[in-house]
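Reproducibility note. Readers wishing to regenerate the assembly model reported in the main text can use the exact inputs given here. Chain order matters: entities are listed in the order in which they were concatenated for prediction.
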Amino acid sequence: MTIAGYVFMIIGGLFFLLGGLGVLRMPDTFNRIQAGTKATTLGAFSVLIGVGLVNFEWSWIAKIIIIIVFIVISNPIGSSTIAKATYYSKYKPDNLVQDDLEKRGDE
Amino acid sequence: MKYFTTFVALLLVYLLLAGFTVDEVILGSIVSAILTVLLTKYLNFKIDLKFPLRLLKFILIYIPVFIWKLILANFDVARRVLSPKIPVNPGIVKVKTNLKSDLGKLTLANSITLTPGTLSIDVLDEYIYVHTIDVKGSDGLEKEKNISGPFEKILEGVFE
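Running the prediction on these inputs yields the following structure tokens for the assembly.
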């Protein structure tokens, strides 16, 4: 159980690493937000599950479930809000092949 | 009924975080009661007899699909990040949703954000505007199927 827990933590750390790398390497803001959100969500999941397996007790598991629920709710809302703020502050990457939000309210 | 549900939910969260001892139950009840009085006027939800069934559907059908999609999304990110020339073809796509309730739309938008290659930017009326890393398909319907298809049906069963 302990070993499985540490394996989960290492996997989670790798996802965090990938997320950070994604934020560095992606070409524009929206893609960076995407890489950041997904990797940190699963990374946090994985690390927390690892902690739960290492300390396999009811009180720890209850807390971890609550934390996971809050992360799953707040993480995508946060990144959506950043993306929305980015878009409405007139930032526009050159590589967009399509932009439906620009013609909103036309129909 | 609304007060009672809010109170129970808050107390449950408090106790799961703090642990089940007599002190915590007393303090948690006081804190939850105060918060219930303060918060209830901002809350807008209905609890009916179908609620347990919906919850069951949510846990048994939605969550496994969601976790599977989240894992796929991460491998997608990993593949893009690690390839020497990053393959992107981004665009902002309009997706129509049939969900009426705010909570349903929120859940759908969140699910879209955490599925491979998509990020919801804004929800206006019945459309969700989604930033897609790789615009696929030529017409609108095909894109909708790619983006919200798997979740739309499940969430309709849960929230409508």
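We highlight two features of this model. Chain A touches chain B through 46 residues (CB under 8 Å). Chain A is about 75% helix and 0% strand.
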